[in-house]
Amino acid sequence: MTIVTDTRPCSIDVVLGARSYPVSIGQGLLSDSRHWRHALRGRHVLVISNHTVAPLYLDRVLAGLEGLQASSFLLDDGEAHKTFANVGNALNALAQLGATRDACIIALGGGVVGDLAGFTAACWMRGIDFIQMPTTLLAMVDSSVGGKTGVNLPAGKNLVGAFHQPRAVIADIDTLATLPQREYCAGLAEVVKGAAIGDVEFFSWLEQHADALAARDTALLIEAIARKVRYKAGVVARDETEQGERALLNLGHSFGHALETAGKYTALLHGEGVAIGMLLAARLSERLGMSAAADTARLQRLLERLALPTAIPPGMQPQALLALMRLDKKNLAGTLRLILWRGIGRAEIVSGVNEADVLAVLEPA
Ligand SMILES: NC(=O)c1ccc[n+]([C@@H]2O[C@H](COP(=O)([O-])OP(=O)(O)OC[C@H]3O[C@@H](n4cnc5c(N)ncnc54)[C@H](O)[C@@H]3O)[C@@H](O)[C@H]2O)c1
Ligand SMILES: O=C(O)C(=O)C[C@@H](O)[C@H](O)[C@H](O)COP(=O)(O)O
Ligand SMILES: [Zn+2]
After folding, report:
1. Which of 48, 51, 171, 259 has the fewest CB neighbours in a 10 Å radius?
2. Where in the chain are the domains?
3. pLDDT single digits (tens) 293-343
4. Could you tell me which of 83, 103, 60, 91 has the C-alpha nearest to residue 160?
5. pLDDT tens sequence across 14-56
6. What was the pLDDT predicted at 1?
7. Ligand 2 closest atom vs CA 158
């Protein structure tokens, strides 16, 4: 067993030419504005957060904005509020602030806040700066990195959006102290996803340390965040706008997004949908002769040890889930295009997947 004890801050670059940016991971980063204030170019700053996170951490950020014209815009909490209407409300807050083109939005919160704030930044005056300050594990390891921004429609997840990269990502792991355990575990699902797609050694490392990670060991957590961010940064640098390889980061998401939508964004957290979705993708891959049952079993065991759900919640109908999957953004020419699995560390984009095979894995066992 490898022993991990290093808790020093670290920084990982997302390399995208003139739009490159650092992802800083460590403790005490929000309170010490020397870590992020240099990324602000103009005078106007709008901090977008929500009614749960703002009472906990907004004062730390506002303290670092002294001397600037800053205000905040708060969302109600939850995935159901990642809407077009709220982008409109946030844009109005920018107008009220008198934000010029050198203004900056700071996204302080989880993936919902980050996706919506990033999209708002992409829209205001056709694009202004934004900084991601993720406060959930999921946002630290995934949504704050890579520039996918957007909102949901009643018809499905993330159907409207833009690629718009942040100027910096500041992941202050002190904020995780207040994160509920269920949300923490949902973030671990996106860590497992990275390993399942592209890093067999990382997958074994997660198996080795699953219990300590679930118990939030600080040094292991920093290492896990850094490894996942490094992996994602590499994929994004090679394929920023998902012309190819980046689609692999969607392992489990065609199923997962359908599950989240079917649950009206309240039954399952995003990471939970991804956990179940990865297993369904693994079972479908097995059915198509692409992967072995032993790999599916290893994936299921790891997810269970991280307290993640592995079964479709009762009452969700296979046909209804399939209908939602038909609207997934990866599909082309009216056929299903899914990310399937060749076993631990290897995923693949597969076009023209037969709907009968998908239905077979959606049926209750
Ligand atoms: N853009 C991307 O690449 C990308 C990647 C993955 C997920 N996503 C999106 O991210 C969203 C999921 O993000 P999430 O899991 O962070 O959910 P979330 O933003 O809803 O946050 C989860 C919950 O934790 C609360 N919270 C946040 N920080 C907290 C803290 N420090 N202490 C206490 N409570 C805190 C929030 O108020 C919320 O109730 C989904 O909309 C998903 O589609 C986007
Ligand atoms: O960054 C990516 O690329 C991802 O696919 C990361 C996913 O974990 C994330 O949930 C993303 O929002 C899904 O994107 P979408 O294009 O399927 O909406
Ligand atoms: Zn995701």
Report:
1. 51
2. 10-178, 181-362
3. 999 999 999 999 999 999 999 999 999 999 999 999 999 998 999 999 999
4. 83
5. 999 999 999 999 999 999 999 999 999 999 999 999 999 999 9
6. 61
7. 18
Ligand nearest to the CA of 232: 2
**How many angstroms is it from 328 CA to the middle of ligand 3?**
13
Task: Tell me the CA–centroid distance for residue 158 and ligand 2, in Å.
Answer: 8
How far is Cα 54 from Cα 251, in angstroms, rounded to an integer? 32
Task: Give me the amino acid identity at 48.
Answer: I
DSSP state of 154: T
Alpha helices in the chain (DSSP H): 54-63, 84-97, 111-123, 137-138, 181-198, 200-214, 218-238, 253-262, 270-287, 293-305, 318-325, 355-362
Q: What is the pLDDT of residue 156?
A: 87
pLDDT tens by residue, 69-80: 999 999 999 999
Domain 181-362: assigned CATH number: 1.20.1090.10
Atom of ligand 2 nearest to the CA of 250: 5
Rounded CA gap, 143 and 150, in Å? 11
- Which CATH class name applies to 10-178? alpha beta
Q: Which amino acids are annotated catalytic? A: 126, 148, 190, 232, 242, 246, 250, 253, 257, 270
pLDDT at 3: 72
Cα R_g (the chain), whole angstroms: 20
Q: Do 181-362 and 10-178 have the same topology in CATH?
A: no
**ipTM of model:** 0.99
The packing angle between helices 355-362 and 318-325, to 10°, is 130
